[in-house]
Design a protein that fits this description.
Blueprint (H helix, E strand, L loop, with lengths): L9 H15 L2 H25 L2 H14 L9 H36 L5 H21 L5 H15 L13
Helix pairs in contact: 4-5, 4-6, 5-6
């Protein structure tokens, strides 16, 4: 079977060409083969120069900008879960700060008989209310963790029923 009809890799053809040129050709064939190889190399260099010419590269970029389409980003399932867990952790941390502050105030009340002002307690209550609203907007308000943390905060507010009587209604 002739070499032209065989299914050879380009590197194999290159090796066979070099072997033929160096070891089997006479001087006339070697000269012709070198001319063909030089012409092919010149064609290849011209092709590469044309392909990677800086002026042409920038022209092509301008054309691709016109043809570019906006691809919508679709968030993966795992990144949604990770984002939700992070938001839940933020909610728990922020509400824990409120609970800690309320418990510190109650401990201070027991030790010094000095009660915090109604405004300070209401400020913390509204801060918690805003966190709960944000939790609903972020989509974490339907979880068990959200419910349990909310109950902990409400129980902490009930400690101050004597300062803010409306907290008696909290359930």
């Amino acid at each position: 079977m002739p070499l032209e009809k065989q299914n050879l890799l380009p590197t194999t053809k290159e090796l066979l060409t070099v072997l033929y040129r160096d070891y089997m050709c006479d001087d006339i064939e070697k000269k012709k083969l070198n001319e063909i190889l030089n012409e092919n190399e010149i064609k290849y260099q011209n092709y590469m120069r044309e392909k990677y010419n800086p002026d042409n590269i920038f022209k092509n970029r301008e054309k691709t900008k016109e043809n570019a389409e906006i691809i919508a980003y679709k968030e993966s399932f795992f990144s949604k879960i990770i984002r939700r867990i992070k938001k839940q952790n933020e909610f728990v941390e922020e509400t824990s700060v409120i609970v800690d502050k309320l418990l510190d105030w109650k401990l201070e009340c027991l030790v010094t008989n000095k009660k915090p002002s109604r405004e300070a307690i209401e400020h913390e209550y509204f801060k918690f209310f805003k966190l709960a609203q944000k939790g609903k907007e972020d989509g974490i308000a339907d979880g068990y963790l959200f419910y349990k943390q909310g109950r902990v905060v409400i129980e902490a507010f009930k400690l101050f029923e004597d300062v803010v009587p409306e907290f008696e209604r909290l359930k």
